[in-house]
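Annotated sample (chain length 695).
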Amino acid sequence: MLYQLVVDSPSFKKVIRIQNSCYSIGRHPSNNIVIPSPQVSRRHATLIKKINPNLDISFHIIDGDLEGHRSRNGVWVNGDSYLERELNHGDVIALAEDIQIFYQVIPNPTFPEEHSDDRPLSPPELSVHFPQEQWDITLIHRNDVLHNLSPDQLTKLAACIEYSPYPMVEIDYFGNLTYVNVAAQEKFPTLAEDKFSHPLLSEIVPDQNHPQGYYMHTREVAIGDKFYEQHIHYPAESQFIRSYIFDITERKVIEKSLNYQAFYDPLTDLPNRFLFTQEFSKVLSSHSGTDNPIALVLLGFRELQSLNDVLGHSVADDVLKIITERVSAHVRVEDLLCRWRGDTFILLLTSCNNKREIEIFVQRLLLILKRPFFIANNPLYLNGYAGIACYPENGDNVETLLNRVGVALNEVKDIGSRQYCFFEDSLSSGHLERIQLEHALHQALDRNEFLLYYQPIVDVKSGSLSGVEALIRWQHPKRGLMSPGSFMGLLETTGLIIPVGEWILRTAFQHFRQWQAYVNDDFRIAINLSPQQFQAPDLLPTVFRILEENALPPKRLEIEITENIAMQNVTATQNLLNALKSHGIRLSMDDFGTGYSSLSYLKSFPFNTLKIDRSFTKDVLATPKDAAIIQAMLLLGHSFDLNIVAEGIESETQARRLVDLGCSEMQGYWFSRPMAEADLTAFLQDGEFQRFILS
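Output written by the structure step:
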């Protein structure tokens, strides 16, 4: 077969014969096939030659280059967009609106058994079948031409064959060697001895089902660690079979490398999304018409991007390798694991009995991934989460199921408190709603739609205000005032938390100027930092710059982080907190007792304040165990000379019980709900905090 591309564009038309292992297509001059058009990407597509197990040749087109970079416009074949596709004769590849490539497979020319002048026809020129750089010899087969050659010319012609660097072998139809040139003798010295057991002669003699007359067959032969391409000629009305052999070992090595680059992730050695999609399609085809469930599990990790930003690529890569090892050790042979994109993995469970079995498997997998990752003897913790979609319940084709497992993953990612989620039809509408919300978030900062509310922190022994906690709100143009729980996850995932975080700091400091005359010298503004903010490389200069812009003493700022953030990388956390503390900024650990921190590490962190989570304080009156835990926290905090703040106080009896246990600073609805800036100003001016004194 002959394979070619017919390129049709406004600037040029060209026919390109394709035979090599790989072709790059794009507008950059370094491509194998250059399309000089601004509508075409620099590296628009890649063409890969594949030889199937039955030795049939096919070409596959891949969107973008072999390093995973996609094209700008995509690759469209017969009107549909593809990331990867096996090409068939007649396929029309569109790289842009007016640039098309026609893929053609042309059968080798055939020759009739009889001719009008009763003379045998010569076979087609060898240059048709072999690359010119591999075949520089012109062979003459016409008997009438041979008769006209002189003895010297015949000798030279014979020498061309005899001393050709490419092996040539001829046998008769009984398997007897009739000719072996010098190159064949040197490369295959056991040909005569092995006969039909030799790979080059095995199954070379045709049976009665083979066509009559001239034809040619091409196959690949492996001998030891070498690969050869064998072209077998069956001349019409001839008693001999001729073989021309070319060493293609280097090409096979390149093909293997290109195949690996195209279909495997080099970091984890897992299949990439192209190969996964192919295999998934095959699995669905084999399950078509059955009710046997198949599960797609998409795994994500909230902290991986932050690890990459803060600790560098090498640490993040090490964590990805450990994730691969852990998941691979707990999946079955028949299942398929793939690295889907940078920080997500996808798992295909092909043999499942029911959804409960899938749920138990995912629960165990997430538990395994929650164990610490030790990098240079330092523990790192990740919060894994999973989206799940099932065949045939959630769809019967690859595209639908992949879309729905992504929707399920986003649901878990946005909510934050759940570890996994099965796709449900209701999620699709919710997914669209989140997309609209995300779009509105990108405009909210420019439109001044964010507001800051403040909740007082009260000292119940003196009746004074110790400080306030700044809390963001979003005045949505259609939904009204929205609490942070409905959009903070989106701020984090979109990266908008960084500019919004700067806005919170700057706005809170500006508001403080109006309160400065009404507060004592120890009054502070507590501001929460998200994981992405805390791990941002420019956190320190940003905080210092905003403090300087507003002429605010550093002690007025108290930065709050959760236990989980602090424990992601103990050494990095310690260095950052020490840098903040050395500049006079106060530090607070929020939600103390709800994470997985070690007390041995806690003593190394320079915190000023511990905040007891509301999950402990809400039942302090009814549950002796909660009271005992709070008392232990108070003893621990006071032994480290830390300030203790109890959150979630909603009644006087609850507050008095905490006083009895030794806690004096509190915040909650019983003292005040979060207030807008103007309301807090009035609250401070009023100054009647004596009513909060509890003795």
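Annotation: The radius of gyration is 37 Å.
Annotation: The first helix runs from residue 126 to 129.
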